[in-house]
Amino acid sequence: MTAETSQTLDRGLRVLKLLADTDHGLTVTELSTRLGVNRTVVYRLLATLEQHALVRRDIGGRARVGLGVLRLGRQVHPLVREAALPALRSLAEDIGATAHLTLVDGTEALAVAVVEPTWTDYHVAYRAGFRHPLDRGAAGRAILAARRGESDGPGYALTHGELEAGASGAAAPLLGVLGIEGSVGVVMLTDSIPDRVGPRVVEAAKEVADALR
């Protein structure tokens, strides 16, 4: 900690991060151990976070992330979209196909940013806000592959006709971005994806991941 930082705020943020990383919540004792502070400090931190609905405690006394984080989360997509746009524009112009950033939203894949190429005669109309099951389409399949830890493949997913007849997709997962599951890809009107497209979406996904870190 430096003179310009707040120790209390730092501890509160660490509490939120610890709770976000568990599905079953943590007790005061567990938080005390992981933070390296006494239980009284943890009680005060939790009480303050509860006042802002950022933390809730269940009947058993285990602390969990509260619904207040949803209000903060609503602003995440615009920030992520803004960070991703330069890489998406470059990808769309380079490949000549519609590029997109897709994030996990519950059990679905949600397109949060879409960039269409400027120089092509035609391209697939793909809109931000489009949803589809995670197990259909290259964007969702790339995310699922990363979730399963599949590292022996090419690093990207290819599909044809799964979301739109005559359209093919290629997507690569975002890797190493804490708290975000997503992919970057392209969709084009073709029966098969050119060989260079897969490695190019991997490159673009890395650019987006770097921008979000």
From TrEMBL:
Domain HTH iclR-type residue range list: 6-67
Record's keyword terms, sorted: DNA-binding, Transcription, Transcription regulation
Organism: Streptomyces aureoversilis
TM region(s), chain numbering: none
SUPFAM superfamilies given in the database record: GAF domain-like, Winged helix' DNA-binding domain
InterPro entries tied to this protein: ArsR-like_HTH, GAF-like_dom_sf, HTH_MetabolicPath_Reg, Tscrpt_reg_IclR_C, Tscrpt_reg_IclR_N, WH-like_DNA-bd_sf, WH_DNA-bd_sf
A matching Pfam family: IclR_C
Official protein name in the record: IclR family transcriptional regulator
Domain named IclR-ED: residues: 68-213
